[in-house]
Each structure stands twice: as C-alpha cells, then as structure tokens.
Amino acid sequence: MGQKVISKAVIKRLPRYYRYLGELLDAGVERISSGELSQQMKVTASQIRQDLNNFGGFGQQGYGYNVYYLRTEIAKILGLDRPHKMIIIGAGNLGQALANYAKFEKNSFHVVGLFDNNKALKRKMVRDIPIMMIDELPGFLQKNDVEIAALTLPKENAIDMAQILVENGIHAIWNFAHTDLNLVVPKTVAVQNVHLSESLMRLSYNLKTLEEEGKIK
Amino acid sequence: MGQKVISKAVIKRLPRYYRYLGELLDAGVERISSGELSQQMKVTASQIRQDLNNFGGFGQQGYGYNVYYLRTEIAKILGLDRPHKMIIIGAGNLGQALANYAKFEKNSFHVVGLFDNNKALKRKMVRDIPIMMIDELPGFLQKNDVEIAALTLPKENAIDMAQILVENGIHAIWNFAHTDLNLVVPKTVAVQNVHLSESLMRLSYNLKTLEEEGKIK
DNA sequence: TAGATTGTTAATCGATTAACAATC
DNA sequence: TAGATTGTTAATCGATTAACAATC
C-alpha cells in the first residue's frame, strides 16, 4: 500500500528486459552486468540500473545481475508468475492467431474459450479451445474465473461488448478494435489497446522519411 | 532537405489524430478547434497545436481546423496519399489476419502476395491474394515493385528472412517476430516491431497493480 | 470591430544520462 | 585487498503544458 507509482516508460521496457534475459538464459549465461546488457539491447547501462532500482536491488556490486534471478523477479513484477484465464471475442484469423500466441508465455495465460456470433463456427475447436456463441458468454463468465478478454471485433461492436464483459466481471481487456476502449471503460478495468493500423502508419512515415532523405532508390 | 527532425513522440500520436479526424468526418463535422478535439481525445489542446505546428500551420485563428483538410494533410505526412505494395511472409492465422487488415486503409496498402513454406498452401488464395512458396520470393520481388514486407514467422527464421528481403530491395519491414529486427537490419530500411507479447505483459502488469490497490475483488 | 482560436515562446515537468560513493 | 559494478544522487536533456501576442 502507498506504493511508489512506476512510470509508464519503465513498465514499457520491462517486457523487453524479460525477453533478453530469457535469451541469455537459453544461451546458458549465468550473470550479466548492466554494461554488457546495455550493449546488447542498445540502451544505456544507466537506464537499466535506474529501471531495475524502481523495484529494489536485484544486483550485486562487483558482480552484476544473476540472469535467472533477475528474470524471475521481472516475471513477478509483470504478474507472469501465476496463470491468468483469458477468453477471446472474435474467432476470425486474428482471434485464432492470438489463441496460439497467448500460449507462448507458458504458464501465464490460458485461453479457455473463443466466442463468435458466426453460427457456422459453433462447437468447432481451435486447437483444444472450444468456439462458443456470444449468447453463451455471460453464463460462461459466471461459471469460470476469467480475468482477461481479448477483443478482435469491428469497432462498432467493441464498445458494447466491453460493457458486457465488465458487467460480467472481466478485469482486463486486450483490445484490437479500432477504438480507444480505455476512454470508455471504468478505471477499475485494465485496458491495453493494440492499434495495428497505427503501427503500419508509423512504418509508412519512416519509409517516406527515408525516401525524402534520399536513402532509398 | 535539411528538414527538422520530428520527435518520435509526435509521430506516434499522428495516426491517432488521423483516426479521430476520420470519425469526425464520418459524423459530418466540418471544423474543430484544438480545445474540442482535446476533450474528445483526452490530451491537452496545447499538445495538439504543438504537434501540428511541427509540420506547418494547418489551422486558422478564430476558426480552428478544417477537419477534411487537416486529415488530408496528416495522411500526406504519414505517406498514406499513395499506394504501397506489401507482401506478407508467413500465411498462418496472423499473416491472413494482416492480409485483411491492411486493406483497411483503402488506397494506401496493397497486399500483393502471401508467402509460406507449407506446401499444402501452395497456389491457394486468401481473398484475392495468392499464397506462394518462399523459394518464389526473390523472383517475385524482382518482378514487382514491393516496398513493405510483413513478417509473421518464428524468430529463428525472421533474421535470415529479413536479410533476404533487404537484398531483394524491400524498404520497410513490419515485424511480428519475437526479436528486434531494427538492431539487425541496415538503417536504410524502415522497421516497426510489433511485439504482441509485450503488450499482453503490460496488460498483466496493470491488472496486478489494480489488484494490489484493492480495486479488484 | 470584437471574439475566438491559432501559432509560438517561455515555464514546468519528467525522463534520461552522467558521475561517483557504497559495497560486494 | 583491489577491482568491478551496483545503487543512487545530481546534471542534463527533451517533452509537455501554460501563457499570450498575432491574426483570422
């Protein structure tokens, strides 16, 4: 309680540290200094030390950081140390892609259901995950302790669906619809908006900039 | 030439302005002030005016901004005013999802081919887009003027594939593999990394924080 | 003209980097 | 112990916000 608020910039970097530490672990590296890690990740050693110190001292003077220990601690910070049940609303290509994707983080995210309103999909399975109809959703949420819902829907339906999800006890929404759900949902629900189109537009901007600088063609 | 470098923070916000302006346009709104827009987008009016002024004066004192004009100008800045040919490497669920997705921006991104090494997919079509084999890729790039490649591959293959793409004249990579391609590819190629797992981890962090603050359950 | 709202400069805030004392 | 490297404070840098003169 009364915990220090960690800046968004720091939180944004944590998953990247987590990924690099995983790769180091796979490569059999036991310890690493902020200096070495900074070279690999192309950030400053100072930033790494500052970031980590937001959460307490994970390193040791004269030694550096133990890779396994540091990774475990970051996992805890990110809440990856326990399973989260997740459902996916929208069983199209993106929904199905996420169903596979979320398994990546082995013990953290369990996709327990896909929902769609296309009756042709009813009772089908994606891997071992059943596709259910939207009208089964409230009942399903009542029976199962689901924390996270991924939304891969047209934006017209996303806001109403978010409402339904919140009413039925969902605590986190991973939103792929073209709208900013966090402006619509109560602050007691975590929201991450993934706007793929924005990413593509930034790529387009960068491409255009390279052209204008004469670095292309 | 010798153009002012625009900060990443500004570029990151442009697509969001573009989206809101599109919605205003659909709603038949003709003009808007930075103050009104700031309320809708939950940012400061000051930031909107500062951001836009990086590119020149799009507004008019006492009037505000013409929605259609401003949107058109932002489109130009982002390079959305001309078509970009795009291919997708990896014809799994994510690749196919992107094939539909990229069409969203009507005249900006044309997906002209999907590539995979799964022979079962050979010669299939996704919508009107042919799936081709990876070994056909260099020939295809030689014949077609493709600027952008989306990469939906396991990370093991992504780096080699990026190399091949760059050698064959690709200028922009939209990377969905779990690795930082921008650290690997020459600076004359634009890269946007989309790390979905990082987004999910941030969601998990926010969820955990809400729990700890006692706002859940 | 008076009112509204931009464009732009100046002030503030926050994040990053540098430096170094603490300590393993 | 000497050397290495963290943890942490101080300095710098950049981004955001506030303020207001310019101007439609």
UniProtKB/TrEMBL annotation, chains A, B:
NAD(+) binds at residues 90-95. Residues 16-55 bind DNA. One of its GO terms (cellular component) is cytoplasm. The keyword Manganese does not apply. It is found in: Cytoplasm. One of its GO terms (biological process) is response to redox state. The keyword NAD applies. GO terms for molecular function: DNA binding; DNA-binding transcription factor activity. Keywords: Cytoplasm, DNA-binding, NAD, Repressor, Transcription, Transcription regulation. It holds the Pfam family CoA_binding. Residues 80-180 form the CoA-binding domain. Belongs to the transcriptional regulatory Rex family. PANTHER family: REDOX-SENSING TRANSCRIPTIONAL REPRESSOR REX, REDOX-SENSING TRANSCRIPTIONAL REPRESSOR REX 1. Homodimer. Modulates transcription in response to changes in cellular NADH/NAD(+) redox state. This is Redox-sensing transcriptional repressor Rex.
